[in-house]
Specification:
Layout: H1 27-50, H2 55-67, H3 78-89, E1 96-100, E2 109-111, E3 118-122, H4 123-129, E4 139-141, H5 157-168, H6 171-178, H7 186-196, H8 202-205, H9 210-221, H10 236-248, H11 254-272, H12 284-288, E5 300-301, H13 307-322, H14 329-337, E6 340-341
Antiparallel strand pairs: 1-3, 2-4, 5-6
């Protein structure tokens, strides 16, 4: 049986009766290993203290409060939890919401906070769709919800986090060890507000947007807080990326989603040529140029003034299909092409 030093991995040679208990090749290695272990523990403790001031975790806590239970996290392991947190973190630049397929407040069930039940869709389409449910997604029966896992809106963020940790068992500790947990940029300005106005609730302030906090601070301090302007992009790429993610999950609907994505590529090229439509995404062709078919490469609108009709048609169809609605792809492609004209040279 070979043994190796826990610090430098050098083989430990059996030269004494104490070899069976030996863990290090030298006192120096023993000290180095304990120092590294202590540093790692300190790093984990720091990350744990950052959790209630981390944007992704704050979103998760708010969703639990909205649902009234931490069981919206039912079925998670470390892999699915990390993928869900990464999805929350990677919010697109457009006017989008993180939409549930199975709604949080369903009639007989509660939609889960899980990447297979979430997609980024237009804020307008999400508001219009409301709390409806078509099919698919992930949920838990309301009959299976337990009093033990209930949370209320007036619970502190830390109390909700403790209940989440208890419910998910080892998932949160493992997540902390393997993922960065950074403080939100909202923390500093929220603390300024509570320092000046002790009646302000720090937990509630952390649920506000950065712009809302800056506006509040400006009103209190009389100082104008400048917010860097972010370049606005259309929500087109958000829909394309959502379709791509669910295509990658496979299943019977992947074929329909793949066909819809190809039709959307054609519509994008035509809409992009109408400046008023503001259909532009910096990385669209970086991601989806392989899907461009030569015969549609010069597609453009027959009537440029029809861009709002076509764009609404595409967004509504993408949103409802992601929500589980059936789609006759041939009929939809025919409808989209009815707004377009192709190059005479083809």
């Amino acid at each position: 049986m070979n043994k190796f030093c826990l610090s430098c991995s050098q083989e430990l040679v059996n030269r004494s009766k104490q070899w069976s208990n030996q863990k290090y090749c030298s006192a120096k290695c023993r000290k180095n290993h304990h120092r590294m272990k202590k540093t790692a523990m300190t790093r984990v403790e720091r990350k744990r203290s950052n959790l209630t001031q981390n944007d992704e975790m704050l979103y998760l806590i708010r969703q639990c409060k909205q649902a009234g239970t931490v069981q919206v996290l039912h079925g998670h392991d470390l892999k699915s939890f990390k993928e869900t947190m990464e999805l929350i973190k990677a919010r697109p630049k457009g006017d989008v919401n993180l939409c549930h397929i199975a709604p949080v407040k369903g009639t007989h069930s509660t939609g889960l906070l899980h990447h297979r039940n979430l997609f980024y869709g237009g804020a307008y389409q999400n508001k219009k769709f409301g709390n409806k449910y078509i099919s698919g997604g992930l949920s838990i029966s309301n009959a299976a919800l337990k009093r033990k896992w209930r949370v209320t809106r007036d619970m502190s963020n830390n109390d909700v986090l403790i209940k989440i940790e208890e419910f998910l068992l080892n998932v949160i500790p493992d997540y902390i060890k393997s993922s960065p947990v950074r403080k939100s940029k909202k923390v500093q300005i929220a603390k300024k507000i509570t320092d000046v106005d002790p009646s302000a609730n720090f937990d509630e302030l952390m649920f506000c947007s950065y712009k809302e906090l800056c506006d509040s601070w400006s009103a209190i301090s009389g100082r104008l807080t400048q917010i860097p302007e972010s370049k606005k992009e259309s929500k087109y790429l958000a829909y394309m990326d959502s379709l791509t993610r669910f295509i990658d999950y496979g299943g019977v609907r992947a074929i329909t989603l793949r066909k819809l994505r190809r039709i959307m590529v054609i519509a994008y090229m035509a809409l992009e040529r109408v400046e008023l439509s503001q259909t532009y995404n910096k990385y669209f062709y970086v991601k989806y140029e392989p899907l461009v078919k030569f015969k549609y490469g010069q597609a453009k609108l027959k009537n440029p003034d029809d861009w709002p009709i076509l764009k609404d048609l595409v967004y509504t169809t993408a949103f409802q299909t992601l929500q589980g609605a059936s789609l006759k792809t041939k009929a939809f492609q025919k409808l989209v092409l009815s707004y377009l004209e192709l190059s005479d040279n083809l």
